[in-house]
Amino acid sequence: MKTRLKAMAAKFDALQMREKRMVAAAVLFGIVMGGYTFGVEPAQQRAAALRKQIAQQKTDMQTAQAQLAILKAQMRDPDAPNRQALAETRAKLAVADRALQEFDAKLVPPERVPQLLQSVLAHHRGLQLVSLQTLPPAPLLTPKTEEKTAAGAVRPTTPAASAEKGGNIHKHGLEIRMAGSYLDLLAYVEELERLPQKLLWGRMSLSTAAWPRSELTLTVYTLSLDPTWMIV
Questions:
Q1: C-beta neighbour count of 134 within 10 angstroms
Q2: What 3-state class would DSSP assign to 178?
Q3: What is the pLDDT of residues 139-151, one digit of tens each?
Q4: Which uninterrupted H or E stretch holds 111?
């Protein structure tokens, strides 16, 4: 080995200075490339693989944390969505109830309708009352036509029974017939329309048997939660 090294050294000494520099540069380049290939490059590859592994582990950890948060929320309050939906429904019902109460305050109560119609009629002495009769109360919401008994049999239900159980809204109607001149009848209707508490208008018909006497048939309504009939 020493003999071979000496021979190589002798050959190197025999080279010209320019050739010696080229050989030295080639040897140095080989040493550098060998060091990079067997030392630096594998270390860089291992570092890149390690960084990729760490990033994947972070992603997996974030996913696991999100799933854990969902599980904790479900375990803490599994009925939370149902309770929220119930609360929203109750809030909507409360708003509807307030609106109904405000509307109900603007309408004439059923028990006051007959007296109100007759008191307005008294202001128009040219009119004559022909008839005044109440109409059966009718629920605004369609009631169930049948229900099951405890034994499983099906039996029909009356509108009144269904309304009392379900809190229905009832339409109370009254029909009044008056006779008089057209202008007196028109003045009566206009006064009803100017009342602070309102009536809902139904059917209205005018007939003339012997001029100038006409007959007006007027049906008016009011609303109430009470299914009790008006008494004339």
A1: 16
A2: strand
A3: 877 655 544 455 4
A4: none
Tell me the C-alpha to C-alpha distance, in Å, between residue 79 and each of 66, 69, 82, 109, 192. 20, 16, 5, 43, 54
Tell me which DSSP letter residue 123 carries. T
Distances (CA, A) of 26 to 19, 23, 181, 207: 11, 5, 131, 127
Greater model confidence, 222 or 225: 222
Q: Which CATH number fits domain 110-224: 2.60.40.1400, 3.40.30.10, 3.30.70.60, 1.10.357.10?
A: 3.30.70.60
> What's the DSSP call for residue 167?
T
**Helix extents (H) in the chain:** 2-14, 17-35, 41-76, 80-106, 113-122, 159-166, 182-193
Contacts of 109 (CB under 8 A, 6+ apart): 222, 224
Three-state SS at 135: strand
Domain boundaries, the chain: 2-70, 110-224
pTM for the full predicted model: 0.49
Mean pLDDT on 93-107: 74
